[in-house]
Structures are given as structure tokens and as C-alpha cells.
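User: What would this chain look like folded?
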Amino acid sequence: MNQEESTIVRCAHCGAKNRIASARTLEAARCGKCKHPLKPGDAKTGAAEVYTLRCTGCGAKNRVRSDRIDAGAKCGRCGGALKTDALFEPQPLMVTDVNFDEKVLGSPLPVLLYAMSPTCPGCAQVGPVVDRFAAEARKKVRVAKLNINTSPRTADRLSIMGVPFLFIYDNGTLKESLPGIGDIHQLRMRLGKYI
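Assistant: Here's the prediction, encoded as C-alpha cells.
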């Protein structure tokens, strides 16, 4: 089925995305996950993506629709402005001693921090896996790279003894640390609970 021949409709009941053939009437369509009927109004608004951003002020998770990002998304708990610009930053993001606190600890998204060195042979194997995950998890997880040769203060602060080393941050706190990773599936499994 081609992209031109179908429409993506989000179920108002469970939030699942459903691909509906253009030839099929929406009144007869049902959600593939929860089996509830899809409403005709869902076709217009169903294509909007929903992003989960953490408020950097109070730490609450907020769901923001893509069609409302420009309107100035606010936290549902404290009313503070959400950092929606984090959704559009390039992945993977280079982190240094200067911007570590802002880009990692102050991130509205969960962060996968990849500590690496350009001269490390193990990093040559892990690097492409992290880059693939960065492309796949864009707008859900911030993937950041830390070159320990050019950022020795941050490497010392994190007690990095060898590379490659991966850190998972959520809400500004270190959740997990991993001495390397085997494949992209392991990254998905580790970060799935923070998305």
C-alpha cells in the first residue's frame, strides 16, 4: 500500500496510529489496537505527532502535539514554558565542558550520553550503532556525544576510566551507565522505559 493511497488516523481512545486506505470510508474503520470505531474528525487531527517533554522547572512529563508547538507549549503542572526547541536540534549533539549542564542535565528529553574518543578502536564499532539510534529516536531521546580528549573536566566529573561508555540521564539525574553496547536493540530496550 503506497503512502498516497492511505491516511494515518490516530485513535481518540487509545492514541494508536492507524493506516486507513483512501478507498475505505472512515465510518467503517476501527482501531487495530483497541477495536474502537475511528471518528471522522480524527482524520484531520490524527496525523499530528505527540511528543513527551519534561518540564525543566518542576520535572513533570507533558504531552505536546506537533501542531501546537508553535503556540508556546506550557507545563500542565507549573505553567512554565517547555523547551520545544530540543525537538529540532541535530542528532547526535556534541557536548563539551561548557554546555554539559545545559544540554544534558537541563534537557526536556531523556539523554543518551556517549563518551568516546576518536582514537579508540572500540568507539569505531559502537559509534555507528549510536548514530543509527540517534536517527531513529529523534524527537524522543536526545543523543549526545562527549569527546573525552577535548572535555577532560566532564570526563573527570563522570569518572570515566575507559571508552566507549554510555550514560542515560532523565530529568537531570543519572539513571544508568553502560560500558559499551552490543547492538541497537539493546539501546532500544534500555531507553524504552524513559521515553
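Residues 168 and 174 are 6 Å apart (CA to CA). If you want, I can go into more detail on any region.
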